[in-house]
Amino acid sequence: MKNRLRILFLSSEVAPFAKTGGLGDVSSALPKALYEMGHDIRVMMPKYGTISERKYVLREVIRLKKIPVKMGGAEHATCAKSAFIPDSKVQVYFLDYKPFFERPGLYIDPKTGQDFPDNAERFLLFCRAVFETVRLLHWEPQVIHCNDWQTALIPWLLKYELKTDGFFQKTTTLLSIHNMAYQGAFEQASVSNLGLPVDIFNKNNDMEAYGKTNFLKAGILNADMLTTVSPRYAQEIQNDPKMGAGLENVLKKRSKDLYGILNGVDYSIWDPGVDDLIENKYDVSDVTGKKENKKTLSEKCGFTFDESIPIVGIVSRLVEQKGFDLVISALPQMISMGMQIVILGMGDEKYHEGFTKLAKKYPKNLAVFLKFDETLAHLIEAGSDMFLMPSLFEPCGLNQMYSLRYGTVPIVRNVGGLADTIIDYDTDTGKGNGFVFTDSDDRTLLETFKRAMEVYRDQGSWLKLLKRGMKADFSWKSTAEKFVKLYSKLEKKK
Ligand code: ADP
Fold first, then answer.
1. Is 0.90 topped by the overall pTM?
2. 426 CA to middle of ligand 1, Å?
């Protein structure tokens, strides 16, 4: 291969090892696609307590048995193990440091429901360990592809601490932003003993924002290139202060280096034709299996199975961003319109309580599962008729693209990646692949459902609509090619 690139992909989540949301899916699918293209791509993530060494066959790496990492006057004795992303040859290094990562949660302590108080220290250590790891491997990456705040200090460290280090002379950085709402912003007290220079607390320092130490800001200002997960979101985060979450002006400074690249779908995992997590496989040529999955889902939810009643699915982190205040307020009316609704999610207590209360009130029409369950997520995609994503903002969103492939018609708000992927159905022309609404209020949502229900009752039109969705192609190949173009551009810059 002419231009085989050495790419180090860093992420705090990689499916199936550890996942809380879309980042996990992306961090496994994109490296796999890059490997298929012939690149030397390696992934690195923390070894959390939730990752089973036996299940994923983690092996010791002789060179990585001892990785001493200095931080704030202390030296931490870390090591790394390795495994392959299942069904692939992509190598993943797991940074093993039990005092920081051998815990039941990734970022949040399940006991308190709050962020771990030492998250800054944990992920700074991870970043520092990354450099030591590649040094010990004698493997000098041409590009370090960072993702989100957890790895956003890499470009900053390269620039300020490793500038004169010969080993990294040719290393460039790309930072992908998956959600501006999570910035790794810490009170000064939690970073003051980490050996970072004191001027990081000065106003307008690369790492300072609103009186806090902001890892994402440091990444945005120092990465050689930036991407975010959809073209629409790339615009929104620069132009809408709500979306930019206080860093819109910082992003604007980097406008010419910021690209919006839509995430893809890993169709080896998310396709009803090959999905091993569902009982009845089906594809666009014959969707009868979908009805069987609907029966299974209906049973699981305690609903009465009735083909004329649509099941509306939701699989999501239960946080404000996803528009759940609207769902809670509109649910009783949605139910009276004749729908069955299934919700799978975990997140804020207020939504746990709100949905639990409603499920008790409407047991025949609403089923709520407050847990993380990959198998149920697949069954909901396969067994539902409609999929609801009323997000206030949505950087990309994956479930609407999964839904299309499963013949489950997405009903989405007109923001971010949802706007980039779902086209509102037009009854006159029969064009579109879902239902899109803009105003985030009960009336608009219910009117949208009314439109969807009308089409649903006309099974001929509905079948055409869902089959059009099933034919759409959001595979990673073209997305990965876009990344390679950016990596090559970076390489030329050096
Ligand atoms: P975000 O990254 O904001 O959470 P995305 O739509 O990009 O949203 O990705 C969400 C991913 O997480 C999807 O793969 C979805 O199926 C999965 N997911 C979210 N919550 C759960 C859950 N409770 N159980 C199983 N999968 C979940």
1. yes
2. 29
